[in-house]
Amino acid sequence: MAVPATVIYFTCYDQLCAALRLRMGEYAQEAPLLAGATARVGSATMISPLELIRTKLQSQRQSYRELSACIRSAMETEGWLSLWRGLGPTLLRDVPFSAMYWYNYERGKSFLTEWYKTGEATLTITFMAGAASGSVASIVTLPFDVVKTRRQVELGELQAKNLSCKTSASTFCVMCRIVAEDGFRGLFAGLIPRLIKVAPACAIMISSYEFGKTFFRTHNQEKTLHRRVMSGVLISVAGLAKHSLDFKLARDL
Fold first, then answer.
1. Which of 12, 109, 214, 230 is the most exposed place for a label (fewest CB within 10 A)?
2. What is the rounded CA–CA span in Å between residue 17 and residue 119?
3. Distances in Å between the alpha carbon of 87 and those of 18, 117, 164, 211?
4. Residue 88 included in any domain
5. How far apart are alpha carbons 157 and 60 in whole angstroms?
6. Quick check: is 49 in a domain?
C-alpha cells in the first residue's frame, strides 16, 4: 500500500509544483504549499479503501474471509462509499500535513543550503530539513489522526459484533467525545511514537527521493550529451562524405 501511495504522491507533487512555480510568478515560493495539498488529496482518495482494510486487520484478529464478509456487509448496507469511511479525517490530517511539510521543507532546504554555502542541497541538508518539517507537521495534525483511527476502529468493532453501522459522527463530534473522556491530552495520544515514526521516515524518504532525482538527472544529462556528441560526429562524417562526393563529381565534370 505504501508503494503505490508514495509513487502517486511524489509524482503528482513534483509535476504540480513545477507547473505552479511557472504560473505563480512572484508567489512561486508558495507553490509547494498548494502542490503538496493537492497531491495528497489525490493519493489519499485512491488509497483510502486499502487504508481501511489495513486498519481493520490491525485492530481485529480476523481472517481474510471474515474481513471480506465485513466489507461486503458494509457495502450492502451503506453502498460503495463505505469503503471511503474515514477519508474525511484522513484528508483533515494529511492535507494540512502535506501542505506544511512541503512548504517548510523547501524553505528549510533553501535556508540550510545558504547557511552552509554548498550551492545545492546535499544529502545531509535534505535529511535535516525533512526530519524537522515532518516533526512540525505531525504535531499539528495529530488530533485528526487520533479521530481517524478512533472512527475506523469503532466501525470494525460494530461489524465484528454483527451490529448495523449507523451514520458516523462528524469529526468535531468525535473530537468532543475524546476531550470529554480523556481531556485535551487525548487528542495528542501517541505523540511520541508518532514523532519517532514520522520524523525519520520523512527524512529518509525525502533524502532518498532527492538523491534519486539528482542521480537520474545527471545520468540523463550525460546520456543526452553522449547522444549529442554522437549525433555531431555522425553529422560531421556525413558532411565530409557529401563534400568528398561533391568534389569528385565536380572533378569528373
1. 230
2. 21
3. 27, 43, 20, 32
4. yes
5. 8
6. yes
Range 155-184 burial, b when 16+ CB lie within 10 A, else e: bbeebeeeeebeebeebeebbeebeeeeee
Q: Does residue 158 fall inside a structural domain?
A: yes
Please provide the distance, in angstroms rounded to a whole number, between the alpha carbons at the two ends of the chain.
75
CATH number at residue 125: 1.50.40.10
Number of domains comprising the chain:
1
Residue 192 and residue 108 in contact, taking contact as beta carbons nearer than 8 Å: no
Q: Given CA atoms 237, 242, 243, 249 in this order, what sign does their dihedral have?
A: positive
Q: What is the pTM of this model?
A: 0.73
113 to each of 60, 105, 210, 216, how far by Cα in Å? 47, 12, 14, 21
229 located within any domain: no
List per-residue pLDDT tens for the chain, 253 residues long.
577 788 889 989 999 999 999 998 888 999 999 999 999 999 988 888 777 777 666 666 666 666 676 667 667 666 677 778 778 777 888 899 999 999 999 999 999 999 999 888 899 999 999 999 999 999 998 988 888 778 777 766 665 565 555 555 677 888 888 899 888 898 898 899 999 999 999 999 899 989 888 888 887 777 776 666 665 555 455 555 545 655 454 455 5
Measure the CA–CA gap between 127 and 204, rounded to whole angstroms: 6
DSSP notation for 114-145: HHHT-SS--HHHHHHHHHHHHHHHHHHHHHHH
